[in-house]
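Posting for a labmate who doesn't have an account.
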Amino acid sequence: MKIRRPIIDRGALAVILVMVAVVDLLITIRAIGVGVPPKWWHLPAEILAFGTLTILTYLMYMAMEAAGRRYGLAAKIIVGIATAFAAGVLHLPIIAFIFWHMTDHPRVIWSQLYDFTRIYTMVIPFLFNGAGLVAYGFYRDVIARERQLAEAQRLAQEAQLLALRYQINPHFLFNTLNAVSTLVLDRRNQAAEAMLLRLAAFFRLTLTLDPRQAIPLAREIELQRTYLAIEQARFTDQLEIAIDLPPDLETAQVPALLLQPLVENAVKHTLGGDGAYIAISARVEADVLVLEVVNTVQRWQEPGTGVGLRNVAERLAAEYGDEAALDINPGDGRFGVILTLPLHLASPTAAPLKVVTGISG
């Protein structure tokens, strides 16, 4: 897409007006210095001198910008010097006209005009203006680069959040389809159908979420209830679930599916033995939201810091920076993950999720 540039660069015009005002003042002082009575410098002459100086300087700026965009800084400076001489030559007869026709002392002006309007005297103001425009161009480019960098960082952060979210979903889908396959092989067709319906409900809910935005903690917990209901359908007698969500934290804002990889890891390392247990809890400590996922660990398993935990840590860093953290809390036959993040409460706006989970808490 081609970027359309404004017809008038308002920033450059403002800089030009300031510089022209300074040059105009210096010209006035110079005129008085060569013997021109101050009374000649009335409004019509002021408007004519100021206007022509502004127009010529802006034309010079446009030529410099065109050369700079196409050939670089060196060409911009060369064109600036060349156009300064051209503008000085064009401005010379205008100044002469003003001095000749707008004074009551033509003999004084005629005797001093040559000294006042020598070509180098006319070129100097435009060289001054050109230097100011080059400095303005540097400043404008620095600001533009800073804005582009900030925008690139914002887009990169959004892309990172999207990538982390979509790294999670295929893993979950793979685990669930494996569970459905096992049920079908065991000829538990009704259970397989129920699991597929829960899976469809889960993905229908997750597809409505924007991973770049936060959702109420109650909604996040319900999504995890749905996932755990799918796992419980396969391991009815082996998996115990406990969820502790205080009512005053239901509206706490958290990134969508933040807990999903932690719950998946908990299921992975918990199942396969007696006394499988997963607990999800939320609390506030020192005005900070603390989320914890604890699960039992089979003695033959060694929980580590795999892809799931790394994804969550990277997502917290991308979303909150140093304000959030992920800590692991291993113990004898148990493994815990503690998330700390800023506490932001909002009024409940989303309708409650209508899912049948069979999980109390």
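Reply:
Got it, the structure tokens are right above this. Strands lie at 214-216, 239-244, 253-255, 276-285, 288-296, 325-331, 334-342.
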